[in-house]
């Protein structure tokens, strides 16, 4: 503890703005993003993916947030309007929705991640913030951005890049970097086909989290120059960061330094839930006795839009028809009527009817499972009605003909698929 004479650390977060990039489709999530952007996909029994990034900003002390949207943004915008409308302008707080709206020219939507910030420079300038932290809105993690902001100021960096260690086999989906002994980035490759490994760790690469801290004026000058370059992709990973690595000072911030963990979380937790398999596994992992991600940590709550619903209900108590849920997350408004639920997540308002069995399932809001259905290793989209006696997860060939079946045997079920049966 600091002595009474020691002043507290400077609250860099209060002078920063979080700019969240939430316009991506996330095409590898297949039909889950047919009607919604990836950041709006449901996660964890109650939240949306973007809630983790926004909660990190809020819990870190950042009170100015902008969210740039583009692809099929209605579901996301509606969620943000309902769940994140509590910021107060009289306390120098703000929450701006920044949809692509042809503000620069009539034919220019957001051309890239850097362009999304560039097109909103005039809005951000009105807030006179000292730092901008650029965030991706489609990852699951808990992180104190104040620690990263402090490192940025103390190191005198032009940009500070959040990074973590990842298996080399998966690193081609990210920006990959080399650093020296002072954490200065000396090379940066955006999504290389053959990712380089870390020194002494042949199977590990150091990858970008898509989190960047800039001094505001420095960033705006850079973005204005980039906007005039006809050969630029107007992207942070492809253009902005490599340019700073070459001509300025780019410093790496290791996620392990600022990740937020409760007493039960043994390792730093970060997930890109960009595929159906990764999305399914990250959700199902939450049903573990001691999950790798602690959603019950009151010191770092994950905020979201909370619908007004009655409590979950479990009814019928006889052999073969007993409403029960074991190792599962069950949200408000759910009714488990004479059915067995195991290792599953039931989002708001789900109904599971008598004699059915649901195991290792991610069931999104207001879906209904008919009587005597047997479902295993499934992701069920919002509002889907599962017919009586439907069996999924026992016949791989039949499942693949009717539903979206992944390499790991997870079946994604939408209403359109059900209607074709």
UniProtKB/TrEMBL annotation:
Keyword Mitochondrion in annotation: no
NCBIfam families, sorted: glgC, PRK00725.1, PRK00844.1
- TM regions (residue ranges): none
User: What Enzyme Commission number(s) appear in the record?
Assistant: 2.7.7.27
Give me the residues that bind alpha-D-glucose 1-phosphate, please.
Answer: 110, 175, 190-191, 208
Quaternary context: Homotetramer.
Q: In which pathway does it act?
A: Glycan biosynthesis; glycogen biosynthesis
Q: Which residues form a coiled coil?
A: none
Name the residues annotated as site: Could play a key role in the communication between the regulatory and the substrate sites: 70, 109
Q: What does this protein do?
A: Involved in the biosynthesis of ADP-glucose, a building block required for the elongation reactions to produce glycogen. Catalyzes the reaction between ATP and alpha-D-glucose 1-phosphate (G1P) to produce pyrophosphate and ADP-Glc.
Report the family membership: Belongs to the bacterial/plant glucose-1-phosphate adenylyltransferase family.
Give one GO molecular function term.
Answer: ATP binding
Question: What class does this enzyme belong to in the EC scheme?
Answer: transferase
Q: Which UniProt keywords apply?
A: ATP-binding, Carbohydrate metabolism, Glycogen biosynthesis, Glycogen metabolism, Nucleotide-binding, Nucleotidyltransferase, Transferase
Q: Which GO terms describe its biological process?
A: glycogen biosynthetic process
Q: Where is the Glucose-1-phosphate adenylyltransferase/Bifunctional protein GlmU-like C-terminal hexapeptide domain?
A: 310-413
What reactions does this protein catalyze? alpha-D-glucose 1-phosphate + ATP + H(+) = ADP-alpha-D-glucose + diphosphate
Residues annotated as domain Nucleotidyl transferase: 18-287
State the protein's name: Glucose-1-phosphate adenylyltransferase
